[in-house]
Design a protein that fits this description.
188 residues, alpha/beta, transport, transmembrane, transmembrane helix, membrane, protein transport
Length: 188
C-alpha cells in the first residue's frame, strides 16, 4: 500500500525582499525632507598678516551693543528698544566726527565715530540670550547699513541698489564698510 505524503503548502517569499526594497526606495524618493534654515552670513576671510588686522580702536569709534540674559538690549550701558537700534547705528556710523566725509549727513558729535570707515559695532551677548533676539538685533544693524548704502548709491551713482555694477558696489563698501564684532560673554 502506498502512503500518501502530504507536503505543507509553502509560499515562495524569494521576491519579498525585492518588493520591500523597492517600497523603501519609493518612499525615500517621494518623501519631502525639510531643509535646514540658517543665516546667510559671509564669514570674514583669514588675515594674511595678523599685525595688519589688529589695530587699536578709538573709544569714540566703537558702539557697544550688549544683550543680557533678561533679554534686554543695552547700547553704551543704556536700555534701548529693538526698534531704536537702526536709527542709533545710522547716527553713529554717519556721524562725520572729523568733518572730512563729504557724503556723510551726521551731526558731527564728539561722542560718535570719526568716519564711517572707522566705525565699529561691537555686539556682546550673554550665553542665555535668546537666539531670536540676537538675530533681530543683527537684522537691525544690517538694515542701518543697508539704508546708508542705499542713500550713498542714489547720491553718488543716481541708481537703485540693484542697478550698480560690481566695481560701484566695491566703492560703496569702502564708503560704508560693515564692521561688526560679535562676542559671547562666557558664564562661570
Amino acid at each position: 500500500m502506498k502512503s500518501i505524503r502530504r507536503y505543507s503548502a509553502t509560499v515562495n517569499a524569494g521576491s519579498m525582499a525585492d518588493i520591500a526594497f523597492l517600497l523603501l526606495i519609493f518612499f525615500l524618493v517621494t518623501t519631502t525632507i525639510s531643509a535646514d534654515k540658517g543665516i546667510l552670513r559671509q564669514l570674514p576671510s583669514d588675515c594674511p598678516d595678523i599685525n595688519e588686522c589688529i589695530k587699536d580702536i578709538k573709544e569714540r569709534n566703537l558702539l557697544r551693543i550688549s544683550l543680557n540674559s533678561n533679554q534686554e538690549i543695552f547700547i553704551e550701558d543704556e536700555v534701548v528698544e529693538l526698534e531704536d537700534i537702526q536709527q542709533i547705528v545710522k547716527a553713529f556710523v554717519d556721524n562725520n566726527g572729523l568733518s572730512d566725509c563729504d557724503y556723510c549727513n551726521g551731526n558731527k558729535s564728539s561722542e560718535s565715530s570719526d568716519h564711517p570707515s572707522e566705525a565699529v559695532i561691537s555686539l556682546h551677548h550673554d550665553a542665555l540670550t535668546k537666539y531670536h533676539l540676537f538675530i533681530s538685533v543683527q537684522d537691525e544693524i544690517t538694515k542701518a547699513f543697508y539704508d546708508l548704502r542705499t542713500r550713498y548709491i542714489k547720491e553718488k551713482f543716481n541708481k537703485a541698489p540693484a542697478q550698480i555694477t560690481d566695481a560701484e558696489f566695491k566703492i560703496v563698501k569702502e564708503a560704508y564698510p560693515f564692521i561688526v564684532s560679535e562676542v559671547m560673554v562666557k558664564r562661570d
